[in-house]
Prior knowledge:
Strand content: over 45%
Radius of gyration: 48 Å
CATH class of the largest domain: Mainly Beta
Mean pLDDT: 83
Distance between the termini: 148 Å
Number of helices: 1
Low-confidence stretches: 1-40, 357-365
CATH architecture of the largest domain: Sandwich
Helix content: under 10%
Number of domains: 4
CATH topology of the largest domain: Immunoglobulin-like
Amino acid sequence: xxxxxxxxxxxxxxxxxxxxxxxxxxxxxxxxxxxxxxxxxxxxxxxxxxxxxxxxxxxxxxxxxxxxxxxxxxxxxxxxxxxxxxxxxxxxxxxxxxxxxxxxxxxxxxxxxxxxxxxxxxxxxxxxxxxxxxxxxxxxxxxxxxxxxxxxxxxxxxxxxxxxxxxxxxxxxxxxxxxxxxxxxxxxxxxxxxxxxxxxxxxxxxxxxxxxxxxxxxxxxxxxxxxxxxxxxxxxxxxxxxxxxxxxxxxxxxxxxxxxxxxxxxxxxxxxxxxxxxxxxxxxxxxxxxxxxxxxxxxxxxxxxxxxxxxxxxxxxxxxxxxxxxxxxxxxxxxxxxxxxxxxxxxxxxxxxxxxxxxxxxxxxxxxxxxxxxxxxxxxxxxxxxxxxxxxxxxxxxxxxxxxxxxxxxxxxxxxxxxxxxxxxxxxxxxxxxxxxxxxxx
Length: 442
């Protein structure tokens, strides 16, 4: 009895187990396509497009290359319906182009311009056994507001199903630029006359080309010029100062030639020319008195000055300028040369000799100036009458500011329109300097 019961129960169990296995197998078979859909993916060929504004937005339309969505396994494009494509900020669609598919399982394909920033792709999937591909061709885009870095057209919605992140699965890269301009500096380092000017133009626009013209400029002996890329030309400055050459660049990129040119301005520096002589006035002088050294002739180039040396050319620097005062206590030779941006000239020199005193033609007891310093007037007094002398007033630059013909023992000198500062009063008698004294106007 128990055995029969056990046998009966065991038979029922075996039947139930067999039914359960069949049901489990059916569920697995039913689930297989879904599992295939979950783990498969699509491959996207994402083109890119750069739009250049010439010279302002909106740009001319540009046509995007083919955007291709390909199944990597059957069933990757598994849902019928719509796919919404959205343009990024600062871009608009002007034409939807066309949509096609390979194979026979994707039908009813169309793509339309929903609005300026949205395209709607529609299709029907009839089966999941083939590997298919969707191709979107001829989508046209414009840039509408401003230069924009690389931005994606995105798959932003719709009812169709792709087995990949739906927000980025279908995309194309758009970039917009303003008219191409130079990104290299417009004020390159200066060059010296007779030295080649080299300049490498650059632009952030990919594949940009560069053309330049150089008009005639007064002071540059070269005729007008033109060329492309780096001028690498030698310019000659015919003046004693700096002259500026102008290179006018036109930049072209992505089929866009910027109507606004860029001007590259380079300073052409001048060379100094050595002075022809150096003089001292007075010469000779009494030990401890001052004499004015002056450089004559020649010219100063860009950034140049006259530097005076004692001992030797380039020896001990004693002053700067075309004229300086020195107070020698022994016979001395002084040297002057021009030193500037482009060159240092050779030296010219002058030797200052000493004399024991005032010439016999002069009064033995000398000259008195009082008050000194003065504000409005001073008096030059001689202990002995002199006749037919010339009284000169010299500024610190060696320029004569007053000259008076005089005979007598006293001469009043008024400030008048003279500026406050240091001056020198020289007394010249019969073409010979007999006195040289410093006076200060307050």
